[in-house]
Design brief:
The protein has seven helices and ten strands. Helix 3 packs parallel to helix 5. It is an alpha/beta fold and 225 residues long. The strands form two sheets. Strands 6-7-8-3-9-10 form a six-stranded mixed beta sheet.
């Protein structure tokens, strides 16, 4: 899925002041491309990811997915687009504590009305090496195992776009390296566009291109050497 970000800006009103979070951000991501969004804390990285996901609407500019402007869709339309086209991986894993690993992976499949949710979820847990932990709840899993469950859940719906927000931020270096390897292996197998917000230099260097934000603006955009 091609992503076009056109003159994107996001501002919020705080009392009498207008706070500009993003300004004049433009770039495109081709289908299957891997892109890291990097920059210091407060540079607008996570806000940009939320706009790409349609979780928020820009103050100015457009996000287009295969030519469809997200701002032309209502909230239900954006939610439907996310459900059928996007997978998400977060720093804090975002697993539901009352569900087992298998049930967490099944959830987006069930929401999509898939009759084969159990089988597909089981296959994806096997892909991340967690078949033996399928009946365990998140509190019974290590941080690395929880992130692997989150990856299985993200890829189970065969997304055309995977959005990851600091996916190694809560992991030690060794476990983080394992998650990076697994994420790129799954991405290659699925051919999804991959956009990652990260402070992790090793993770950013694995992406084909890096977009550097500073003060809400793109200050550099280049292919990774």
């Amino acid at each position: 899925m091609r992503i076009d970000i056109e003159n994107l800006g996001k501002s919020v009103q705080i009392g009498q002041e207008t706070l500009t979070i993003l300004a004049d951000v433009s770039f495109s991501v081709n289908s299957g491309e891997t892109v890291a969004i990097v920059g210091s804390s407060g540079s607008g990285k996570s806000t940009l990811l939320g706009l790409i996901a349609g979780l928020d609407i820009p103050s100015v500019g457009q996000v287009r997915l295969d030519g469809v402007a997200l701002s032309d869709l209502d909230e239900d339309g954006r939610a439907a687009l996310r459900g059928r086209s996007m997978g998400f991986v977060f720093q804090s894993f975002q697993l539901l504590p009352g569900l087992t690993a298998l049930e967490n992976v099944m959830l987006p499949l069930e929401l999509a009305g898939r009759k084969d949710a159990v089988e597909v979820a089981g296959e994806h847990l096997a892909r991340v090496g967690l078949s033996a932990r399928a009946r365990h709840r998140p509190t019974q899993l290590s941080g690395g195992e929880q992130q692997r469950v989150a990856l299985a859940r993200a890829f189970a719906v065969s997304p055309r776009i995977l959005l990851a927000d600091e996916p190694t931020g809560n992991l030690d270096a060794h476990t983080g390296a394992q998650i990076i390897q697994l994420m790129f292996e799954l991405n290659r197998a699925r051919g999804a566009s991959l956009i990652i917000v990260t402070h992790d230099v090793a993770l950013a260097s694995r992406c084909g291109r890096q977009i550097h934000l500073d003060g809400g603006r793109v200050v550099a955009a280049a292919e990774t050497p």
